[in-house]
Fold this sequence. Notes:
This protein has a single domain (7-250), classed as Creatinase/methionine aminopeptidase superfamily (Creatine Amidinohydrolase, Alpha-Beta Complex). Helices cover 28% and strands 25% of the residues.
Amino acid sequence: MIEHFTPREIEAMRPAGRFVADTLATLRDEVAVGTNLLDIDARATELIAAAGATSCYVDYHPSFGASPFGKVICTSVNDAALHGLPHDYAVRDGDLVSLDFAVAVDGWVADSAVSFVVGRAREEDLRLIETTERALAAGIAALQPGGRLGDVSAAIGAVCREAGYGVNLQFGGHGVGRTMHGDPHVPNDSRPGRGLKLRPGLVVAIEPWLMAGTDEIYTDGDGWTLRSRDGSRAAHSEHTVALTDDGPLVLTARA
């Protein structure tokens, strides 16, 4: 079921959005060469507890997961594209790291992701990250009252394809509200003018993700981490966005 929320309910979602944004900014600043992925998860756990928030990931067990996730943040490194399960790995110079984080605050959920390079960056990695960020901005701009959901997907896909990347449609954006994953599904490519008519009150997570050399993925032996089929690097950018009478409102905007 696709939910639409009142202006008052959208206002109530702001604290969750701010907390998710602030946490990702904090973690991005703190992650350095030698940081262990398990320490990132521990730090996020600490911040969640201090804020009185609730993780959306610990008990999350969808059909595509081998077991409940068991951690509070997704830490995807290099060829890991999505759902990276934190494990005993120390970040190395030049690693491409993606952090995906979702929590509930006072019953309202926000979801966001950011990618960055630790230490010395390769130009191709920066280009990959920048493309996901531009695609995210294009998708947000296309979320307008009276438009169609396909407009959002088409805007994302156009940026990605023009940059020369393939687009995987197995995983994409989704509705957000009282739960982390709801309707509608927001694919990262489509044709404009199709799909759900957009009206104020819709809240969605828009999340372009790309792999440098393929659009095919496989599931790691941990039962969660999705990796590029060819071993190429991946990047992921995401915001939770509410559609208002005045257009899109990014609830997880980082300062």
